[in-house]
Amino acid sequence: MQKLEARNVNLFYGEKQALKDISLGIDPNTVTAFIGPSGCGKSTFLRCFNRMNDLIDNVRITGDILIDGRNIYKSKINVDEHRKKIGMVFQKPNPFPKTIYENVAFGLRIKGVKDKSVLDETVERSLRQAALWDEVKDDLKKSALSLSGGQQQRLCIARTMAVEPSVILMDEPASALDPLSTAKIEELIYELKSKYTIVIVTHNMQQAARVSDKTAFFYLGELIEYNTTTTIFTNPKKEQTHNYITGRFG
Ligand SMILES: Nc1ncnc2c1ncn2[C@@H]1O[C@H](COP(=O)(O)OP(=O)(O)OP(=O)(O)O)[C@@H](O)[C@H]1O
């Protein structure tokens, strides 16, 4: 079964249609990149998968979004419960002004977990998965805000993983980072797909080519082409995709 599926999704901000009849399926344990010029709807589409667009006024969505075969817009699901299954990492690292430890433990504390050994284990496991443990293990009581931007972003990934989502959505997770931190995030994305299904919005085409299995190219709210990343970058079927990846627009 596909992990994520969109069927004929249309999205309107007021009168303005931002997504036009988008259908696509994403297999579990893969990395999928959404690419396309600014304003083409990549982030809007990404936000459909955790119902984050619900938080924006005047948004109307038609069509179906399925996660593990379950329609998340139609069935009577608990949206908060659902969002917990879907982790999200944003463009700018957004750690809480708390200690490194408390950032990672946050989701569990909200769930009511109080057992210190459970919290300790989860914090360590999540920081290891986010390839940050060795850098911070002696500083867990320090403020998360004392970390570098790249470390803060890995901390946010650890915080996301601590609550064990099955899907991680990433909206330009490395665009605010230096090349070394970007490389670390890319390595991490590659490793994480054994456990998670990852969808990443990126402006960086080399990044899409490096980390993703499949790539979806969007233009003016339409999904123009969706295929294996190798095909999109070496043998695209549509002229618009070809023009975009060769830098003729966008
Ligand atoms: N909250 C909003 N209210 C109204 N219109 C919006 C809102 N968010 C996005 N839009 C519009 O929807 C369209 C798609 O925007 P979106 O941010 O999804 O594109 P994008 O491809 O992710 O762009 P970028 O690469 O610049 O982040 C744009 O025309 C944008 O102006």
Automatic annotation (TrEMBL):
Lineage top rank: taxon: Bacteria
ABC transporter domain ranges (all copies): 4-245
Coiled coil: none
Keywords: ATP-binding, Nucleotide-binding, Phosphate transport, Transport
Molecular function in Gene Ontology: ATP binding
Pfam families: ABC_tran
InterPro entries referenced in this protein's UniProt entry, alphabetically: AAA+_ATPase, ABC_transporter-like_ATP-bd, ABC_transporter-like_CS, P-loop_NTPase, PstB-like
PANTHER family reported in the protein's UniProt record: ABC TRANSPORTER I FAMILY MEMBER 17 (PTHR43423:SF1)
Name of this chain's protein: Phosphate ABC transporter ATP-binding protein PstB
